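Q: My labmate handed me this sequence with no annotations at all. I'd like to see what the chain might look like in three dimensions before we decide whether it's worth expressing. Could you predict it?
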Amino acid sequence: MSEEKVLSPKLILSILAIALIAFTDIMLETALNVSFPVLMANLHVDSATVQWLTSGVILLTSMVIIMSSWLKDRFKNRSQFMAAGIISLIGIFIDAVSNQFPLILFGRLLQGVGAGVGLPLMNNVIFEQVPVNRRGTMVGLASLIVSFSPALGPAFGGFLTDAFGWHMIFWVVIPLQLIALILGWATIQQTVPTKKVRFDLVGWLLLSAFFVGGLITIDRFSADGLFNLPSMLALAAFIFGIVGYYFYARNEKEPLLAPSMFAKPMFRLAVFSAFMLQMVNLTFNYAIPMGLQLILHRNSSVAGLALFPGALGLAFMAVISGNLYDRYGARLPNNIGLGLIFFGVLFMAVLPFTLLTATVGFILMQLGVGFWNGNNMTNAISNMDRVYHNAGNSIFAAVNNYSAAVGIALAASIVSVFQNKATNMAHGTAVGMRITYIMDFILVVIAAWMSMRVMKMTNPHANNANEEIELTK
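A: Here is what I predict for the chain of 473 residues:
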């Protein structure tokens, strides 16, 4: 890897193009979240069903992301990018013209396939082509672009839904997708030769069974409980998938995701804490707009605007914290982020739900995630041997997406259970949200303990420009 301190404009533009594809996919996700009550009424579905427009897409994204190491070896960066952008664009167009839930879900699933290819590609290009001494800054810059999507998405989605109808959400992002495709075609470079490698179909099916089984278990539990045939089959697929993959991959020369990486306590704890905190983060993104509309009876525009300051803070903190990482290492942004996340969740768990508390609680949560998330990933991967970097990117991308799907599905399930039991929709939603935030607080405490353990194991020299030393603890 080059140690030049000046990044070429072409490399920066290529990362920008990939980040724009991710930007549009995530913006659609967050824009739709604030429109869920409207979609429930228009499409005649309940809250547990409509959430599949987000969690189902994130699930499929995770299933594609675990292929990213193979895709990187087998196909050129530009080919992956163009395929991701075109598949996603087709899905966006289908949703722009559809009025039936199954068709809309199909279009969203195509967008999930595109995101599954595009999201890890961005980090692969950064870790492959950006000098180590600029890596934290570039991860922060890419995160800034991607993080603007949840900042703009809720307000953007709420305004368009109220003013023009929810279909307009999809029409507006088509030009952005086209611009990204043109820019990426002109700038994305290949620095590592591709090679013909076998696709590990058995490993992919086992991991997919794990992902799908876990999410369906959560979804069915809210409707039917655990002790019924569909729930038990889903739970069995979940357990069989992860246990089967562990024993299968141990004997594979080139598994999709190497279990040996989890032998490193530092990496293992960083991944588990990322899973928990991203899950908590997405329960906020789901529950707050739902609560503002069903409890406080505000429209989707107000729900979107309530999320805007926090999501904007998330975008800017990604760059600030990346710069802090490059200058001072992971410990400072890690501790600041954990503190903000802790107080944000505590704020929502103990105070009455109002427009003010929802806005402030979301701001604290998003600032904390902005400080913590990208640095946790960069620190964990930089502390691994270089041969594991691509697999590490795949694992973090898959974990972040899958935990997001689990967070949304879990919040939707909890809220749905109490909505169905209550005679009043507003009261049932309020009780369900309170339980969700108490659960979030417990998860944050566990994740913070894990993350602080990671800091004690971190090699302070792993982000230096001239060396990447594998952690031996």
